[in-house]
Design a protein that fits this description.
alpha/beta, seven-stranded mixed sheet, about 350 residues, FAD/NAD(P)-binding domain, 11 helices, eight-stranded mixed sheet, about 25% strand
Length: about 350
């Protein structure tokens, strides 16, 4: 009887019910674990992002039994002035999906599997040898999926100092009621800002602008005349969404029975567009490495996290560094002149 009294309420408690949090919950339920998600917002949850799913992300969602509706994406196009570089995905296509549609599809699947979602927020975390307690729930493990500005990460002291404020980047996204003019994700390179253009429906295009603090969305958009012509007088759908600063660094991804997953575990930049794919890979690793030996399983997750994010961190960090240097204006000409190199990088990230 004493063993029954000390057993945690659930096996896995998830802090944050965004796409990665729900993916963790689905993975846990598929593994036969009792799972609860704590999330203060109501479904569906929106977020400022490019909304383009790489082919690897589409495949990862399908493995979870999640098939969101969207617009097929056949590749990536870089543009700067009159220069352009295209790469078409080899094999499977990607998918442009509104963030609300992606979240709803994940929420429906989680409910089908018996995931309980509670309204609330994880503010404090307490651990002992056999459990972790947060939001009044005692669990064997806590998965912190509470985003870029993770409360759990900060409370556990896993933040690393951010870069100087003038080097931070932010994103703002709007949707336009207009038919897509291409099945490619377009990345328009300006002097200081990139426009990330994703078709997400037969009559909707999302435009996310990534740039320095306090840049004005309309003024930045005006710096891309070709994009402005495509949008014409198309009406906007809903309010703009912002996110940032995008760079978030961590000293570790584990602390006892707590694991950081998704944006909470560290983020470089949205520039290369594979954040969902990387988040889903982390969700898989976080659940598959659970075990009775906390230290050993935590070390296994750290190793799996490093492997799952290596290409993203190295390639994106390098591209962001180039984008903030005199090499910026050479990025698109170089991609156009070396299609094999450009395509190889895109494929490496896409899978």
């Amino acid at each position: 009887m004493s063993g029954a009294r000390t057993r945690p309420d659930v096996d896995v408690l998830v802090a944050g019910g965004g796409p990665v949090g729900l993916a963790v919950a689905i993975e846990a339920r598929l593994a036969g674990l009792r799972t609860v998600v704590v999330e203060p917002r109501t479904t569906p949850i929106d977020k400022a992002c490019g909304e383009g799913l790489m082919p690897g992300a589409v495949a990862a969602l399908a493995r979870l039994g999640v098939h969101p509706a969207g617009h097929p994406l056949t590749g990536i196009r870089y543009l700067s002035g009159d220069r352009a570089a295209d790469h078409l995905f080899t094999g499977a296509t990607g998918l442009g999906v509104r963030r609300t549609a992606l979240h709803l599809a994940l929420a429906i699947r989680a409910e089908e599997l018996g995931v309980e979602v509670l309204a609330g927020k994880v503010d404090t975390v307490a651990q002992d040898a056999g459990s972790v307690t947060a939001a009044g729930i005692r669990a064997a493990w806590l998965m912190a999926c509470d985003g870029l500005h993770s409360t759990v990460r900060r409370q556990l002291g896993l933040d690393r100092p951010a870069r100087a404020a003038h080097r931070r980047r932010y994103g703002i996204r709007r949707h336009y009621r207009v038919a897509p003019w291409t099945d490619l994700v377009e990345v328009h390179w300006g002097r200081h800002v990139e426009a990330y253009v994703t078709p997400v429906a037969p009559d909707v295009v999302g435009v996310a602008l990534l740039g320095p603090p306090h840049h004005d969305y309309d003024r930045s958009l005006d710096s891309f005349p070709d994009l402005r012509r495509h949008l014409g007088a198309a009406p906007t759908l809903g309010p703009p969404r912002g996110a940032g600063p995008l760079l978030q660094r961590t000293s570790a991804r584990t602390a006892g029975r707590v694991r950081l997953v998704g944006d909470a575990s560290g983020y470089v930049d949205a520039l290369t567009g594979e954040g969902v794919r990387v988040g889903l890979a982390q969700a898989t690793a976080a659940v598959r490495t659970l075990g009775p030996d906390v230290d050993r399983s935590s070390a296994e997750y750290e190793k799996a996290w490093t492997a799952a994010t290596r290409d993203y961190r190295l390639i994106t960090s390098g591209l962001v560094a180039a984008a903030g240097s005199p090499l910026r204006r050479s990025i698109v000409p170089l991609a156009a002149a070396a299609p094999g190199l450009y395509g190889g990088i895109v494929e490496r990230l896409a899978r």
